[in-house]
């Protein structure tokens, strides 16, 4: 019994000794941070810098050509390449330096012709380069364009409701924008029938608080002007070096004293085997005068007319009808109205219809 206990104890001691001689387990492996890659040095880059991006020329005479030069610096460390310079409407680029070395300065020259502009203008020039930070730069040319010789109230005459047989006049004043002196040498119209009279204004006729010469131009549509639209130009020649010619536009219409509404009769497409409704013309006369219709007839027997007085001596209605049984096809005719008006003794109104 005792021997068994001793043997068991010995076995335990041997096992403990063996365990003591075994190496300890390796410590848990900690994750190591990844190695930091070395950053490659950046390549030299260009950098565009425009000292003055906006060129304001203030007030300039209409017709002048504005020439703007922009200084472009390269503040980077690589050559600056100007790849494109794009102007907006009304502006042209005369020249530009395509390559600007580091630390160097180039130029962009642009031009604006003010002939077609009036009032404040702002024209952009778009500059594209190889600068990675600022690939596009916008340059601006500003000015207030004014005619060197102003036309007041405006360089446009509108003749509204001018009646044939009655003259109509409009008055304009020409003066210099900077208060300098000039003379009007001539005034001519590009067409139409006009009477043009010009004179230099005296001290009592002048527009106040304006210096320099002031000239009056009176444009008259004479009484014998033919009926029709007015759409002409008047060119005034002066001694001003910056405005040798001043253009004035004329628009409007000369209308007859006796008017017919509508100007034509159109029945459209109608059936030939039935009566067609009437179309009406209205003949109007100017107030204060008397008009008589001596005869109203139509030159095609397929049509008939009837005169209905609306206001004695002033307004008449002319009824136009087409008879039944008219042959198929296009039908044309003319209503001829004889009047007592000395300027419009005969009025002709066309008629048309298509008979199916």
**CATH level 3 topology of the largest domain:** Immunoglobulin-like
CA-atom Rg in angstroms? 46 Å
Put simply, the count of helices is 1
How can the largest sheet be summarized?
A: 5 strands, mixed
Quantity of strands, as a count: 25
Provide the CATH superfamily of the largest domain: Immunoglobulins
Distance between the termini: 146 Å
CATH C-level label of the largest domain? Mainly Beta
Shape: elongated
Question: Order of strands across the biggest sheet?
Answer: 2-9-8-4-6
Question: Would you identify the CATH architecture of the largest domain?
Answer: Sandwich
Strand content: over 45%
Helix content: under 10%
Q: What sequence of helices (H) and strands (E) makes up the elements?
A: HEEEEEEEEEEEEEEEEEEEEEEEEE
Task: State mean pLDDT (0 to 100 scale).
Answer: 88
Structural class: mainly beta
